[in-house]
Structure formats: C-alpha cells, structure tokens
Amino acid sequence: MTPTTSPVRVRATDATGQPERTPQLEALYRGFEQQLLVPLWTAIGELMPAHPVSQARPHRWRWKDLLPMAEQAGQLVPVGRGGERRAIALANPGLGGQPFATPTLWAAIQYLNPQEYAPIHRHTQNAFRFVVEGEGVWTVVNGDPVAMRRGDFLPQAGWHWHGHHNRSDRAMAWIDGLDIPFQHYTDATFFEFGADEVDTREAPQRSRSERLWAHPGLRPLTHLQPTPATPLLAYRWEHTDRALAEQLALEAEGYSATVEPGHAAVRYTNPTTGADILPTLRTEFHRLAPDTATAARSEVGSSVFQVFDGTGEVTVGDSRWSVERGDLFVVPSWQPLAFATEHGLDLFRFTDAPIFERLHLHRSHQSPQERAEA
Ligand code: GTQ
Ligand code: FE2
C-alpha cells in the first residue's frame, strides 16, 4: 500500500507528556469524544498513580450524632417489606453522596423498636453485625436464632436467609458491615424475599451454630469440609475480651504476645479454614493499653473502625480526631493510620483485605518514623 500522507515528525511533548494543542490535535480530540474514545496519555496520571490515591476521604462519624437520628428514624419510619431494614449508611464525603463508607464497604447503624421485626430476606452480599451497646434482638440466620449483645460479632454469609426480631421492651441499635459497594460496582448482586415474620418462639442464649462450633480447637467430625464462610454465627464478647486481656498480660509478664508494644489484636476467623470469616470481609478487634501510641501504617484496601470503649486520638493521613465509644471512622486505601491513647482504647475493625489478598494486590507499609505522641 502506498502511504497517502508523508511521514510526519511528531512534535515534542510538554513535562506531563501532552503534545502541543494545534487545531488538528483539537479536531482529533473532538473526534475521540464523538467516538467514545479516551487516549491513555491524557488519563494515565489518574489511572496509574505511583501508589493508591483513593477518591474516598478519611472521615469520622460521632455515635452521639448517629444514635439520636436512628432513634428519630425509629419514631418516623416503619420497618417492613420493600424497605427491609431501618439501616442508615455512612456516606463517604469523597464518594459523591453514594451510601458507601469506602469504595468496597457499607457501614450502617440499624435500629429496631421494642417487639419489632425486620423481615426475612437473602442476598449475595456478605454481612455482619457488631454490637456496641444494648441487647434484646435475635438475628435469625437460616432458621438459627442468634442473640445479640454488647461486644458480640455476628457474621452472616451471602445467600443465607436472615431477619431480626427485637424480643425486648427496649429499642436496640447496632452496626452492619456489608460488601454492598464492591458487589454493586462488579454487578454481582442477587436478592430474594423470604417470610415476613421472624420465628423466635425459640430464642436461646446460645445458637445452634455455637453449640456445634464454639469449642476452641475442636472440629466436629461431621463437618470436615472447609466452607468459604464461617459456620459460627456468633463470636461472643467474653472470648474476645479474654483473648486480648491475655495478650497484654503475657506481654507484661515478659512474653511478647502483642503486635507492637501495648497493642493486642485478634482476627475473627472461619474455624473450617483458619482464614477470614467471610470471602470479602476481614474483621478484627484491637486493644491499646493505656499510654500507647502505634506506628503509622498504610495498607492497600480500606477499613472502617468503631470505637468499642475508651478514648484516644486517631490520625488518618492529614486528618486527626479525638474518638470515644461508638464513634466510627474510615481509612481509605494507602492512607497512613496511627493511634495514641492515654486511658486505653478498644477498637472493632472491618476491611476488604480478603479481596486484595486473593488477587495478590495486597501491600502494606509501616512508616519508619517515630511513634505518634501519646
Ligand atoms: O440487616 O439484613 O445495613 O440487608 C443493609 C442491608 C442491613 C440486614 C444493612 C441489609 C441489612
Ligand atoms: Fe440483609
């Protein structure tokens, strides 16, 4: 084939790699737009930064602002079929008003009045509840009623039927964590309605799942197949609390049992695999002893924390907040996170780390700098 144009000398680009905007180039760019095309050289800075730069921003929500609004919703908004849940989601200020705490994680406060039901449904989204105060609600997962009390962590795998029932004469609030944003972006979601009422004629303190699985290190021989989500539906506060107290006690006795000085931590795991409780969600509990400061750490993937007890200072990137019981805050991908506490701090954490680990995209970095000032 004979070339119809003679070879051109491409003009030099500027410091950001952009060619000089000649009239011909402007016409080409308009053509790209009309044909729905985008050249890499104008987009590469945002698409391929040197390290993760999240649209999500560090943000803190105070429990003392959230809880009264949930109570008001309890007065004004019924729970029933269609709306499904009286759950109010944290909307990250960097994510355009969507009800997403981070690009992958949903975090909400849910509220049930005395004797109220949240009807049964199921969805592919993985979920859990964590209780910072109160009791009296049973969450019924595939027909197994699970009591919810302060400090309990209650995972609930995708596609399991579930509804909630407040059997007490006091309202109860708790937090929900789900992978709603991740499944939304990736078009992976399915949903089905179940029964309108939640059967809690039987409402034991211990669920059937705990009777089968909550015996440390003991696997029922009837259940030797690994399952992708944990079969244990409640991780009770007494166990979490004791595990953390013992880590700190061992450290004080001269055995190094903490992740760093004064910082005890546990991960909730699936007893059939030892891995994370749910395929897309990691959950942990961290306890900082009084007068502890942690080193700044960055990680690929995002986290949501809820303060369970105590007070302290949290630094996430350029943000710094004082936090107290019930407060929630988000840590976007690769933003350095550090804590300092004078009186001690108990923190519940959930993250999307299993997604990144499975895809071999996980990285972390501990800042070589001094620990934060206590
Ligand atoms: O309790 O089943 O916060 O399906 C969001 C979606 C809670 C729940 C949420 C849900 C639920
Ligand atoms: Fe649900």
TrEMBL record:
Q: Where is this region: Disordered?
A: 1-21
The reply to whether Ribosomal protein figures as a keyword in the UniProt entry is no
Q: Name one Pfam family in it.
A: Cupin_2
* Coiled-coil segments on the chain, per record: none
Q: In the record, what terms sit under GO molecular function?
A: oxidoreductase activity, acting on single donors with incorporation of molecular oxygen, incorporation of two atoms of oxygen
Alphabetic keyword roster? Dioxygenase, Oxidoreductase
> Which part of the chain is the Cupin type-2 domain?
110-176
Q: Does the keyword Transferase apply?
A: no
What is the recorded name of this protein? Answer: Gentisate 1,2-dioxygenase
